[in-house]
């Protein structure tokens, strides 16, 4: 019997290394925590290694088997947190594939227990817990983050409603002082967006996901809830329209809150904050992002500098490149 040629180990026609080769969309139930605090999370994993320029490719079936075995091995260890899980997985992938560099992304469904704002009924929202890690020659870096939904009200549209209301009330015979008093107490209409905020932190310190969820929610015009009675619904609408925010405002507020709440994090820590708002009256969505080391961001927030070149995620994850 003639054995088939090992095409993957042959030299490629174009001798170029590849930054990332791997498998994406692996679904696993992982255990985070221990004892009574252990929780099961439905997770989706993306796993990559670099590819040498003298190798045509990886054995995808073998690669998949080895990677899944590595995943199962780390899953059984019951990591105490998402950082331990992703860093352990990145190290396992690197060793099994005998690669120079590995990268892992984990997105897990994360339940957040809440109470509705007025009726105080128990409800549960599902956020996304994010873990990201890179490993190279015994060294590695890891980030933890969350992805949270919320509500924003447009300040620009609200200002147009304010101007229109001002003119109409004056025409109706109200005095300027009366109009001013009315506009202070009556929520003004605007168009709304359901938004998705993402906040990632890379640091040597332990970061609680609940703290990141709180920052993202507080940065939008209002949190949202799966369960709302009528008084709760009114509260959410009123709160959102009393705190209108652009997509840019949301990101800036997230950044400011991280700087204020984590004053002891090292300057070399990494922060990425981004927001997507799904427009209600337009056919497009809007987006804003800020990334950089905490040292770079503190210079802007605390010292008023304009940092024109900031560290991006890829550079921070792999500083030894």
List keywords for this structure.
321 residues; alpha+beta; Urate Oxidase; 8-stranded antiparallel beta sheet; elongated
Note down, in words, how this protein is organized.
A hairpin with a 6-residue loop joins strand 1 and strand 2 (39-51). The two termini are 45 Å apart. This protein is α+β, with helices and mostly antiparallel strands. Helices cover 36% and strands 31% of the residues. The chain has nine helices and eight strands. The radius of gyration is 24 Å and the shape is elongated. It has helices spanning 60-76, 82-97, 155-171, 176-185, 209-219, 230-242, 247-261, 294-303, 313-317; strands at 18-32, 39-51, 102-115, 122-136, 139-153, 192-202, 270-278, 285-293.
């Amino acid at each position: 019997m003639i054995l088939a040629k090992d095409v993957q180990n042959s030299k490629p026609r174009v001798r170029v290394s590849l930054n990332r080769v791997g498998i994406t969309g692996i679904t696993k139930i992982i255990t985070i925590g221990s004892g009574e605090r252990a929780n099961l999370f439905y997770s989706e994993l993306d796993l990559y290694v670099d590819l040498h320029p003298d190798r045509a490719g990886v054995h995808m079936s073998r690669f998949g088997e080895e990677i899944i075995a590595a995943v199962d091995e780390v899953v059984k260890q019951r990591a105490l947190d998402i950082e331990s899980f992703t860093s352990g997985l990145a190290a396992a992938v690197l060793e099994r594939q005998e690669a120079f560099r590995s990268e892992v992304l984990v997105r897990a469904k994360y339940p957040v227990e809440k109470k509705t704002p007025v009726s105080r009924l128990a409800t549960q929202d599902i956020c996304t817990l994010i873990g990201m890690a890179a490993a190279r020659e015994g060294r590695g870096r890891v980030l933890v983050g969350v992805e949270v939904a919320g509500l924003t009200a447009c300040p620009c549209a609200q200002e147009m409603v304010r101007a229109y209301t001002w003119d109409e009330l004056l025409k109706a015979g109200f005095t300027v002082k009366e109009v001013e008093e009315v506009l202070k107490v009556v929520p003004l209409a605007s168009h709304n967006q359901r938004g998705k905020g993402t906040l990632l932190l890379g640091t040597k310190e332990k970061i609680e996901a609940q703290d990141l969820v709180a920052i993202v929610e507080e940065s939008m015009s209002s949190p949202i809830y799966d369960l709302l009675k009528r008084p709760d619904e009114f509260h959410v609408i009123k709160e959102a329209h009393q705190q209108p925010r652009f997509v840019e405002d949301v990101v800036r507020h997230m950044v400011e809150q991280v700087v204020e709440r984590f004053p002891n994090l090292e300057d070399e820590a990494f922060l990425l904050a981004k927001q997507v708002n799904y427009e209600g009256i337009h056919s497009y969505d809007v987006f804003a992002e800020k990334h950089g080391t905490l040292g770079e961001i503190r210079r802007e927030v605390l010292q008023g500098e304009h940092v024109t070149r900031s560290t991006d995620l890829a550079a921070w994850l792999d500083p030894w490149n």
